[in-house]
């Protein structure tokens, strides 16, 4: 555990801690500085360092660019999240949400429930924590204190999702402490996400629907998906469907009440994973028959995030209210949401809730610096998925051009967190870290092309095996029906053991 002042301007004041795990290289290279993984993003997401969660995945996704390549890997949970002390999690929200999602609540009723949750959470946590001290700038100070404590001249920084903002902030505030950066599915301070949230969310749904629409066979099998999804949202808001879902609470079924607005939330979260895009059309079709078996894994994943006791949602609210909300024109965002149609319904309530949370938190606003583009000279690799629902590839492409010394890799058919989904992305990051000034785009593009070809071949073989299995089942059913006919045509003697048993 790394101990730092909660308020770095008051070094003798209250102390907090955050966890640090160091995986040592199999054969260490003294010339290779460690790679520091800045956490799971969110902000507020846990890296899974807890004893009940920790497993090989903590390092296996990064082994090729660290421990197998002579470079140590250091993993943390940032202040307020995961195993950090204090962990700024709203237990009140978890308990209320656990009950709320089993009830048919209107959007207004749900908002009132969660507003009350936030009020109780703030009242409890503000007694023992200065919630104004949980933001990207203070995390950057924590990291430089860690670097000094470890005696490391420079870090290589790895930031995925919101943790990429940490990396950019560290490079801005402590440029001499950073050798190179890998930004995976990055967010950028100069993009006011809430301002464009309605259009971004609608665009994410559209990418999900277009994934099928751009395939002739899929489009023929599942036509007019947008209209059908909009109709589903309206129908479920009028008459919700209770979906008995396993894997929410161990050993029991969870009666998730699926309204139209909750369907939108579940789908948006599922779009973080590119594998879901292939499943979406069949899910829409099944829901039209008032069935939701195919959606159950996505509901369980959604509720797993909502009910995660290690998610530092209070720390996440502090980040938002300090470094983004002050720069949002909520009237403009609200007007945009009002014009976003049926698929923008959940966004309208989200924008209202964001503003309510910041009124409750009542923390000071960040200086204007925190809304400006960061332009460090540090060599930077920016990797993005073409299907990313958080920030469109177009916007990411525009934002990354502010970086004066960077390389850009766009991965087709990948969504959020490309390194977890593609060996090619990790190999590109490994090559970049070894020689940050050498181009990696051409090798990465060639690798990804081959990776997609192998994936298509595998999917083809799996489809053939599935078709063969179905054929065998049909043949077996046909033979069984024929044998039954034969049995029915035979006369069974009276008193036969079979007849008695029957």
Automatic annotation (TrEMBL):
UniProt keyword terms in alphabetical order: Hydrolase
Molecular functions (GO terms): hydrolase activity
Biased composition (Basic and acidic residues): 463-476
Record-annotated AB hydrolase-1 domain positions: 67-418
InterPro entries per record: AB_hydrolase_1, AB_hydrolase_fold, AB_hydrolase_sf
PANTHER family linked to this entry: HYDROLASE ALPHA_BETA HYDROLASE FOLD FAMILY, MONOACYLGLYCEROL LIPASE
Name used for this protein in its record: Alpha/beta fold hydrolase
Source organism per UniProt: Microbulbifer hydrolyticus
UniProt lineage: Bacteria, Pseudomonadati, Pseudomonadota, Gammaproteobacteria, Cellvibrionales
